[in-house]
Amino acid sequence: MIIKIILVGLLIYMVVNLFLAMRIMLKDTPPDKPMSKYIGRRVLTSVCIVLIILIAMATGLIHPNPRPY
To answer: What InterPro entries does the entry give (predicted)?
Structure first.
């Protein structure tokens, strides 16, 4: 259960960084922080999510759905 909570938290963090990058992109004035900072955080978060899912599947903490046929 804790794995699922961590994954949901990371997904929310990823979406927040996406909207922060969009806000900087839409500003007319020069940004005080570069947009690549938020996009980089988003990419790093998605890599962490994939690694956590793979490790959890390998250790048996979560199980993938069975084949649909």
So the answer is: DUF2909 (IPR021313)
